Records
---
Amino acid sequence: RVADNQLFSYMEGNRALERLGRPKVELLSAGVWGWSRHPNYLGEITWWTSFALFSVAVGEWYMLGGTAFNTLVLSIVAGMTEERMLMNWTPKRAARYRKYAARTGCILPFRIL
């Protein structure tokens, strides 16, 4: 919910700037978006991981498989989404996003590789 509210505020702020004839903010990189490029996916993975760990605690270890599959799918979708965005953006905006991506984890709030 926090990520959605921050994204909504960013979008509304850009609409207001556009109405005033001022340049838009090209990239949301503040708040939770400064920790993760896909904070909603992080929330989803965290919820399913918590559920799976609880399931393991009560003897239903196979629930880890669903969580692993969900994590894999969300990771792939995140990469596909970013590729599509970069193809549709101006070179300047894409370059700015690549710099943001270099310092911000895709899903986890830290870089693995």
Note: Residues 63-88 form the longest helix (26 residues).
---
Amino acid sequence: LVDVALVRMSAEWASLLEDVSLGFVCLQDLDEEARDDREMVLAAVQERGWELRSASPRLRADRCVVLAAVQKHGDALQDASEELRRDQQVVLAATRASYGASALRWAAGELLEDRHFALQAVNVTGLSLQFLSPHF
């Protein structure tokens, strides 16, 4: 059994969606409605994770959108909601995609003091140690 959802969109919206996906148009140049459209934001962040900063607050709190962004650009974690900066899976994904584990500087403080999380982060890269609690 397969569910199929058909969505009708205007040719103008479809063209804009394609332009965003290809990087011809940035989210920051779009209106509020487009920056709050999940499909539009996903099209942007799946290619350019850093564009999460231009997404609506609602979508910066959407786990799927944030995961797509941080997997492409780890430091996009800085633009995620506070709740998602405490999410171990999101933060570890960001750590994997960031240079020198730099995404960890945006993680919630309590996460950086969690021993279980610290071990996982160090397994991703030993460079994580520079951002973890000094008592490890």
Note: The chain is about 45% helix and 0% strand.
